[in-house]
Design a protein that fits this description.
- This protein has 13 helices and nine strands.
- With 288 residues, it is an alpha/beta fold.
- The termini are far apart.
Length: 288
């Protein structure tokens, strides 16, 4: 069986899935188009969607002809939400079927703890191989790829102002979608602490302090990151990075901005670039 595997949305965890599927004895088919080519292909089908969705759709469209099954990341575990603000994150299989008439698509868990990913791995592994022994062995050989070191972010650097950069992990993990933002931050003497680099569980524990009612864990973790670091003296400002075309992400950033107590900027980004003048003005305000 040929499994077409997306490389975007959660590229760090997809490394685990690629290894796991190969250990099942199945063939992994990866996208061959460049990120730019894939995003342009996705934009041709869904021009109004966020850039990260267009990139994902473009990769999926490329893989259709070469794969028997397309495996896509499911970013939220709870797919039974009555008020579903972002269906692509919760039910990518259903959305691909409705919007693009894609048939044989399987969702893979990519966020959450190792036990949640394990349940997903055993479910799809047994579905594809019908051999629990093979699945167990593949898991044992691949599980180590889910372990990531808990890094303590460096909050103070000489001649630089620390800013908390809050954005969806599928945006921060895909450097292509950020254009040259990291370099521009450095050039404007801003030292970023990225929300997805903080321990997810700790951020979720801090989320209730925001008093916001959010239904998605991806949003709760970002809100928790703000609650965790905003009160620290080293944090001079908050930069909310939103993918161009992500209307839901923009609304969420505005919610966080309304409760912020430090200087803020909402910055839409696209692989083509972003508003550097707005970022430079923000940098000047936090450096003061």
């Amino acid at each position: 069986m040929k499994i077409g595997l997306l490389k975007t949305l959660a590229p760090q965890t997809m490394i685990f899935w690629e290894h796991f599927i190969k250990e099942l004895g199945l063939e992994v088919i990866l996208p061959e188009l460049s990120n730019l080519e894939a995003m342009e292909l996705g934009a041709g089908s869904l021009p109004e969607e966020a850039s990260f969705i267009q990139l994902m759709v473009g990769q999926a469209l490329e893989l259709v002809e070469r794969s028997q099954v397309i495996a896509v990341p499911q970013l939220e575990l709870d797919n039974d939400l009555q008020d579903n603000p972002q269906p692509w994150l919760i039910d990518p299989v259903g959305v691909l079927a409705r919007r693009l008439s894609m048939g044989n698509v399987t969702a893979l868990t990519v966020y959450g703890d190792a036990e949640e990913v394990r349940k997903s791995a055993f479910a799809v592994g047994n579905k594809w191989t019908h051999s629990p022994a093979v699945v167990k062995r593949a898991w044992e050989k691949s599980a180590h790829l889910l372990k990531r070191p808990n890094l303590v972010p460096q909050m103070m650097l000489a001649d630089q102002a620390n800013v908390l950069v809050i954005a969806a992990p599928m945006l921060l993990e895909e450097g292509f979608l950020l254009a040259n933002l990291p370099q521009v931050l450095q050039d404007t003497h801003l030292h970023p602490t990225y929300s997805h680099s903080l321990e997810r569980k700790v951020c979720l524990d801090f989320y209730p302090r925001t008093k916001l009612e959010l239904s998605l864990d991806l949003e709760r973790a970002q809100a928790g990151a703000q609650a965790l670091l905003e009160g620290k003296a080293a944090t001079k400002g908050i930069l909310y990075v939103v993918a161009q075309g992500d209307a839901a992400g923009l609304m969420f950033a505005r919610k966080l901005q309304r409760i912020a107590r430090k200087p803020t900027l909402i910055l839409p980004v696209h692989p083509d670039g972003f508003d550097t003048a707005a970022l430079e003005q923000f940098a000047s305000s936090v450096r003061v």
